Amino acid sequence: MKKRKLEILLEGVEKYRNPKSFLEQYFTPAVIAADILFFAWSMGDVEGKTIADLGAGTGIFTIGSGLLDAKMVYSVEIDKDAIEILKKNMEKYGIRAKIILGDVRDFNIPVDTVIQNPPFGSQNRHADLPFLEKAMEIGKVIYTLHNANTNDFIEEKIEAMGGKITHKKFYDFPIPHMFNFHRKERVIWKVILYRVNM
Ligand code: SAH
Questions:
Q1: How confident is the model at residue 183 (pLDDT cuts 50, 70, 90)?
Q2: Strand, coil or helix: what is 26?
Q3: Local confidence band at 187 (pLDDT 50, 70, 90 cut-offs)
Q4: For the domain that residue 55 is a member of, what is the CATH number?
Q5: What are the E-state strand segments in 20-110?
Q6: Cα–Cα distance between 30 and 32 in angstroms, integer?
Q7: Ligand 1 close to Cβ of residue 113 (< 6 A)
Q8: Is the beta carbon of 175 within 6 A of some atom in ligand 1?
Q9: Residue 126 to residues 3, 80, 95, 197: CA-CA distances in angstroms?
Q10: Kind plus residue range of the DSSP H or E element containing 31
Q11: Whose CA is nearest to atom 3 of ligand 1?
Q12: Pocket lining: 28 vs ligand 1, CB cutoff 6 Å
């Protein structure tokens, strides 16, 4: 599949209806999700592989992994409302995944590849840390998105836990006006995708 086709398909993934700020529910835009998934696929980390989508939300990485022929996807999400939409998205695209309602900290199944857009820690400092630790515990290869201004901290953590960063990709991530503490209509955050080998 071409990246552009994947992007167009992912445009149809339903987003949160009432995003919860304390869970930092920031939907990954289709253009960014397609770029990450296509990159992961081209690295041989998706097709025929077992994937964990940690903090799956409404499932854009779950759907995308399915479209790119992942063997199996585990979608871990703590919010029931998000999972309702995730299920609808799976039906709409005819994608199968194993949904796990709960905290990523309690998920313990080893996988080939983790793809995640964790909370960036804007509400709770370092809220992304349990995600990073869990990903590195269960995955052989990890794709993980973080706020660019925490780069030094994230790199140190990854190295300390025995991971090797093989690639970094930079994105402008739009945070829409959905939470009342955001005064401007839309803010753009610089984020970094890390590909990590364990
Ligand atoms: N992967 C989706 C959602 C990213 S937002 C996307 O890219 O569009 C982060 C998601 O993590 C939210 O849906 C939030 O509800 C979920 N989340 C936050 N803390 C969590 C935890 N401790 N365990 C599981 N899910 C969590």
A1: low
A2: coil
A3: confident
A4: 3.40.50.150
A5: 50-54, 72-77, 98-101
A6: 5
A7: no
A8: no
A9: 32, 23, 32, 22
A10: helix 30-42
A11: 57
A12: yes
Q: What is the mean pLDDT of the chain?
A: 94
For 141-180, write each residue's pLDDT tens digit.
999 999 999 999 999 999 999 999 999 999 999 887 655 5
Q: Is 128 in the pocket of ligand 1 (CB under 6 A)?
A: no
Residue nearest to atom 7 of ligand 1 (CA): 28
Q: Which residues of 158-191 are buried (b: 16+ CB within 10 A; e: fewer)?
A: beeeebeeeeeeebebebeebbeeeeeeeeeeeb
| Token representation of residue 133 | 């630790």
Tens of pLDDT, residue by residue over 56-111, are 999 999 999 999 999 999 999 999 999 999 999 999 999 999 999 999 999 999 99
pLDDT confidence band for 53 (50 / 70 / 90):
very high
State the Cα–Cα distance between residues 50 and 27, nearest whole angstrom: 23
Q: What's the number of domains the chain is made of?
A: 1
How does residue 21 score in pLDDT terms, banded at 50, 70 and 90? confident
| 104, 106, 128, best to mutate for ligand 1 pocket (most atoms within 8 Å of CB) | 104
Please give the distance, rounded to the nearest whole angstrom, from the Cα atom of residue 57 to the centre of ligand 1.
5
